[in-house]
Amino acid sequence: MTMPKRDTYTPDSLLTVAVQVFNERGYDGTSMEHLSKAAGISKSSIYHHVRGKEELLRRAIARALDHLFAILDEPEAVNGRAVDRLEHVTRRTAEVLMAELPYVTLLLRVHGNTDTERWALARRREFDQQVAALLKQAAAEGDLRADVDVRLATRLLFGMINSIVEWYRPERGTLAAREEVAEAVAKMAFAGLRV
Amino acid sequence: MTMPKRDTYTPDSLLTVAVQVFNERGYDGTSMEHLSKAAGISKSSIYHHVRGKEELLRRAIARALDHLFAILDEPEAVNGRAVDRLEHVTRRTAEVLMAELPYVTLLLRVHGNTDTERWALARRREFDQQVAALLKQAAAEGDLRADVDVRLATRLLFGMINSIVEWYRPERGTLAAREEVAEAVAKMAFAGLRV
Fold first, then answer.
1. CB distance B160–A162 less than 8 Å?
2. CB contact, 8 Å: A103 with chain B?
3. CA-based nearest residue to A62, from A11, A20, A123
4. What is the full per-residue pLDDT of chain A (195 aa) written as tens digits?
5. For position B41, which CATH number holds?
């Protein structure tokens, strides 16, 4: 038997551990026992910080959502033609996904089995709808090609952005590397690969 | 207790059932018991058709791979400038993904825990590499933008195509609907959304 670690966790550092376990085992497959083992502190020490695993999920998801929704308030997302705002939001969403990778990964994998998960899905849908509205406006302003359905374009755009979680490795992720990936997404989606 | 169904399965119809169960429960989480229940025939009846669940996985994956690799032999994938061949392969890969949705979904979710899964991953990598080689050639011919890394572009291209499995519903999937989605992917990736 190993000695339990002295509990020096802050809410943030405990969240880091929990999110890693959630992403490895799935949220449903994670017990307080798993969290206790991964953190190296007793279950009652964890209960000292949070009411349970659902609170950890809620905090983690809230962190991802706060970063994502903050993009929509950035000046470049508010001012100018819709197509330029949309391109900014696309680039920044990719950047946030990489900078907050474990949190956004968790958000993207949520199923909807608990209240927290259903709230996460609803908020995520809200974000998607705000981006879809930008696409619609850009199309109405004549800046988007008319031969691709707006709903379909929204799905493919998020499909491309969200696929980054499948291969992006944050340990190699300098800010410059993140910006290169986000630029590539924006260029491909809006200008296309063909010269 | 319900009466077991008379075993009227063909290899193909049994595969259809197995693939559905694999996609619902995950391959690792599927037992012969689950397959027997879903098919409505006894385990020994299933063993009459196949040696075990790994053979069903291999057949299902082989079906997806055969369809995907066949694309690379189509005249439009062989003749002409690399960029046009690449655009054809992109469109057709999206179409095959939708037409063979359960089989390709299974292929995309394989982990690499068994010999069959490792073989599937290796073949999938081979397909990706052949597409990456086309991208490289198109870049060398000056038809692709030079400011997006070829490896990154390959990943984003597959990311966009593969994301279709997340939302595409085959029951609404007429040939025309599939062609519209595939066209949208090709247009977005090669010409971009911006007018």
1. no
2. no
3. A123
4. 455 667 788 888 999 999 999 999 999 999 999 999 999 999 999 999 999 999 999 999 999 999 999 999 999 999 999 999 999 999 999 999 999 999 999 999 998 889 999 999 999 999 999 999 999 999 999 999 989 999 999 999 999 999 999 999 887 778 888 999 999 999 999 999 998
5. 1.10.10.60
